[in-house]
Input
Amino acid sequence: MPSRTPHKFRLIFSTVSDEEQAVSIARKLVSEQLVACVNIIGPIRSIYRWRDSINDDREYLLLIKTRASLYPKVEKRIRKLHTYEVAEVISVNIDRGSPPYLKWMLQSTDTQRASESQKRKKQ
Output
């Protein structure tokens, strides 16, 4: 039976202009242990209003899984890496999930372990 996860985990959505940027952002977020996983979907078609024009573009959608406590760091990192003037970074709470998957998400975003690993690399 899926475990309830009262706001411990987030699914973050972000769109980017091309596959190269999607892969670059995904790899950085995962390697920095800010997120457990990033799925890259695309190309997708996005229709949106920007500066009084209706735009119709091909983009790539990132589905980003992380701890709720890491959301501010993930958002800041995405905005720094992103090429758009206004990057899409929105999230929803993950209400339930497979216990083994949720455990893996916690292990994959062990920021204390990541900090210790970074310190060892600098020495």
The mean pLDDT is 90. Helices lie at 19-31, 71-81, 99-108, 111-122. Residues 19-31 form the longest helix (13 residues). The longest strand covers residues 53-67.
